[in-house]
Amino acid sequence: MRRWLALLVAATTSLVLVALLVPLALLIRTAAENAATGEATRTAESVAVAVAVEDEQALELTVERASATGYPITVFLPGGRTLGVPAPRSAAVRLAARGRSVTAEAPGGREILVAVQGLPEGTAVVRVFLSDAALTRGVAEAWLGMLLLGLALVGLGILVADRLARAVIRPVTALAQVSHRLAAGDLSARAEPGGPPEVRSVATALNHLADRIDELLAEERETVADISHRLRTPLTALRLEAESLRDPEEAARVEARVDALERAVSAVITDVRRRRRERGSCDAATVVADRVAFWSVLAEDQGRAVTVDLAPAPQPVAVGADDLAACVDALLGNVFAHTAEGTPFTVRLAPTPSGVELTIADAGPGFPPDLVHGALRRGHSGAGSTGLGLDIARRTAESAGGALRLAAAPGGGAQVTLLLPSPAPGDG
Fold this sequence. Notes:
This protein folds into four domains: 2-137, Beta-Lactamase, CATH 3.30.450; 141-228, no CATH class; 231-276; 279-421, Heat Shock Protein 90 (2-Layer Sandwich), CATH 3.30.565. The chain is rod-shaped, with a radius of gyration of 50 Å. Residues 378-386 have low confidence and may be disordered. It is an alpha+beta fold. Helices cover 57% and strands 16% of the residues. A five-stranded antiparallel β-sheet has the order 2-1-5-4-3. A five-stranded mixed β-sheet has the order 7-9-10-12-11, covered by helices on one side. Strands 6-8 form a two-stranded antiparallel sheet.
């Protein structure tokens, strides 16, 4: 904007200066020509007076002194004799010899001709020659001064325009920075109203919008927390039912499941109450091994063969332990939800140059084509589920700078690959 405003002011100022300085330049040239012509005419008239009263010898001295002023002077006497600087007897000279003083253009300049009548021999003509340089003496310097003045005025206009543009752009740039911070999740960002009234109005509206977003998110967090808290009642009833089981081993296993579910509900309540998600780190090998051990119990009940290939600990990643655990639970839960009992699956964790690669593959029916070849959308699964499991894994990976890839398993079925980067120095 500053550049465009500067160009606009430069163009406008240049047009105004051209409209003003061009006529002024022509006027200066005309004035210089008139001044030179007037001075030459006065010189010719003074010589003409001497022609009328002096003899030829005295007249020749007068012509020499007058020529010393810088103008070539020639006196055409009756009878064809000439005094002073030799010059051709042009048509204008012959016209002046008839008693008419004239000014005529000549090669290389202009000649001033004054007729001197009343001489015994006839009419004499005094000729003063003005060269083109004499006619335009001082014009080039005046034009140069005008050009420098015009450039100075254009530069001054651009400088003033730049100052005005900065006064407008600075608050607009600040507004853009605040909007980027809000888009990045920093809901504490606020704009400082400044600049023109319109920009101040936009800053106030942006602050109001940020306040409203903050309020809506707070309401949403509380609503989700309340909904999650309601799950504690059926969990308590389920725990009581587990405690009433007669088989101690079965009761312990069910109670362990209830404890895990209660921890998950508590984690949901804690997570949604946080103002913003803080990036953490954990040992991926330990977390994945723990969650695979948890799901292996259910896999054994359903007759599923589990192949586990985990890199030795530690395998640090830029994802918190709770978030990674929820991600693994979502992916393994999809295996149990969308494949038949007895379907085997594989869990593989391998290091990469930038982090780790977690691959979960099964021998089930595989993903629908629109999921493998299209964009993964939240709430869309193609299998009749909520479609949130894959989205949880995707958001967990992308929040840390990783990615999620869907593909067909080598032996048929579905394969999910989660790329998780290593934590940056200083991340905890």
